[in-house]
Amino acid sequence: MTRSTAALAARGLTVGYRDHVVIDGLDLSIAAGRVTALCGPNGCGKSTLLRTLAGLQPARAGQIDVNGRPLASFRRRALARELTMLAQFNQIPSGLTVRELVAYGRYAYGGFLRGLSRADHAAIDEALDTSGLAGDAERDVGALSGGERQRAWIAMALAQQAPIVLLDEPTTYLDIHHQLDILDALRALNRARGLTIVWVLHDLNQAAAYSDDIVLMRAGRVVAQGSPDAMLEPAQLRAAFGVDMLKLAHPQTGAPMCVPAYGPPAESPGPKASGAAHAFERAIDRDIAV
Questions:
Q1: Burial of 286 by CB count in 10 Å (0-12 exposed, 13-18 middle, 19+ buried)?
Q2: Where are the bilayer-spanning segments (predicted)?
Q3: pLDDT in tens, 147-170
Q4: Number of domains the chain contains
């Protein structure tokens, strides 16, 4: 992938907190107009990488380019027109309605001192509708459930209308119904507008179903990057997560899926049960006999 086709590119990126290095010499290229999932074990640097790509966390070394331009050359408002980020944890504002919160996403287009334009209101309405909150626009954000609040933050990010959207675990706090609603909506926006989406997802099957590319990380480095079909290979998942996984095909769509490989294979007798296990089995047998 050339720099001209990369929405985001990092070279030799090193990031840390005090004396702890979180990302170590990382190279990464995110294709424009595609959906890319960052996956890996807890503590591998996914959230730190996302924050650094967004300009919220300084790098110790290396360079980041946004649409071919050095990240360091952007002023804050100009950068906000290029990318938006939804963090994993957000402070709950007090005394704001959902609509007022979502309106903050329009900061990049003129600040808060001017009134909202017709285009601003249209963007806010569309973001509320996409996030399923059109009927809750006048509710106080503090009165929302965890899932509703998460959707409100997503709506604010969408109202910014930046071509690059970074999302750190966007399905956090959501039940499966709303998880799929949000993933479907974001995927539809990617296809309709050509948005570049980079999200951190822990559910590998959701990552495979909704992403064009998956980046597997471990210990602050990229282990592998490629299509969901290639990244769900057992060898790749073991390299990233250190566990044995089985790759399957979805029974309806044929899309790649993975499940943990539990215990020994069915044809193997496996290790003999311990003395404690035998005692437990005998106790069960006695209870059944009684």
A1: exposed
A2: none
A3: 788 888 889 888 998 999 999 998
A4: 1
